[in-house]
Amino acid sequence: xxxxxxxxxxxxxxxxxxxxxxxxxxxxxxxxxxxxxxxxxxxxxxxxxxxxxxxxxxxxxxxxxxxxxxxxxxxxxxxxxxxxxxxxxxxxxxxxxxxxxxxxxxxxxxxxxxxxxxxxxxxxxxxxxxxxxxxxxxxxxxxxxxxxxxxxxxxxxxxxxxxxxxxxxxxxxxxxxxxxxxxxxxxxxxxxxxxxxxxxxxxxxxxxxxxxxxxxxxxxxxxxxxxxxxxxxxxxxxxxxxxxxxxxxxxxxxxxxxxxxxxxxxxxxxxxxxxxxxxxxxxxxxxxxxxxxxxxxxxxxxxxxxxxxxxxxxxxxxxxxxxxxxxxxx
Length: 330
Prior knowledge:
By secondary structure, this protein is an alpha/beta fold. Helices cover 39% and strands 14% of the residues.
């Protein structure tokens, strides 16, 4: 079946499923719902939720509150097949260990990260039995009423250092912290054909893995940057300057992206139907070191970059990237 021959009726069905990936709009709807309830005759419902929110405030940094029922919703299979998304295992991972997955590239909306690690549509639990994935997301989104509860059901947790430390420090192994290493800043460079990764100066995740003895696993999601066009925003431009200032102020990047609509393919906010292949690489064994030196961090960071580059080079031609293209690590 041709990737672009997806029935329009199915696209209509998937529209509300894909929209939640546009975090800002979905979060605004949840916030608006809370305000409407608060100002209505059912204000006490909002008041009770506010009490619950206060009591539950630290849950996103304490492992979250995942729901196997939500992760196995049938609708996620439609989400998977829309692109489609495929999770590729290269080696077995021992569930006796905890792991830190470095996810690359961030893309505009981390669609591959969500589909693979926040749902069971691509068969994570079958491919990696005994492992429980936790995708880290900006703390900002866990402050939004209702929305926070929805995203935690899939296994999303706060990207706060305390949150990652909690997951990687869990006894008995079997837990995976999935970190989009490039972060919100990298999303501003996400566009078709882009191979730029912002990881050269990001070493916090390396230090975190060392402190807990969590094995490092590079993950490259081929096709992640192909889902949206983005308004030209070269470094130094007015648009990029405003985006960077907003990102520093709020912690949230706002890429000005567009792709396709429901009934036409020239413009809209639905992602393009481009296949995503998320390849999980070979683990790097990390010995626990609660107080690593800068030299030790730099050494492991270099090893990680070598493994990430090797993972990309060994798989790129299989997933449509010409041999002469290489990663640009900044």
